[in-house]
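Anyone? Bumping this.
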Amino acid sequence: DIVMTQSPLSLPVTPGEPAYISCRSSQSLLHSNGYIYLDWYLQKPGQSPQILIYLGSNRASGVPDRFSGSGSGTDFTLKISKVEAEDVGIYYCMQALKPPLTFGGGTKVEIK
Amino acid sequence: EVQIVESGGDLVQPGRSLRLSCGVSGFTFSDFALTWVRHVPGKGLEWLSTIGGTGDDTYYADAVKGRFTISRDNPKSTLYLQMNSLRAEDSGLYYCATMKRQQLVRGNYYYYMDVWGRGTTVTVSS
């Protein structure tokens, strides 16, 4: 199975400042078709998870452009360019290259 | 608007069975693959199973393979998860999610979990 490792575990952030979440996979998520098979999800307090980024860097419909995904091979980053109060929650990366689909352990983002 | 409602969660003893249901409305049910994911407090999200639109293709996590069965009734727009031989570690909040299909070049497709329900709670305890 592909193991997904996120860091940091907890991320206190200041509104208006950028935030970075790291995700590392135990094997490359580059598919033979040239795409990166990685998603980012956010679970806000008391809510169901929601998709933010798919294929490593594509924002899902309705996701603000302050969210961006980057990376290649086994190292990936989710960037929030200017954090807003509504961005608090737990962020998960997930590999979709091969079953079983596996999530990272999550990064809890909270406002300082 | 796509709406998802999970049901069937309950408190059950270890070794017993439970069937979860997921009712979906707002789109052509048979066009979409569907997935079950659970959230265990302190452990995060865990993918459990995915089923294709026709029901012919199914995939399972090792932790539930042989104990859980995913199925769907397209005329009823309902997804199921039959859970047998339940264990304490199966306790959690179970979500159903639609799989959005994104077309890639050369006829390939990519799927991601798009619309999620609010979940149904399963507690396995004696």
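Late reply, but here is one note on the structure posted above: Residues 20 and 79 of chain A are 5 Å apart (CA to CA).
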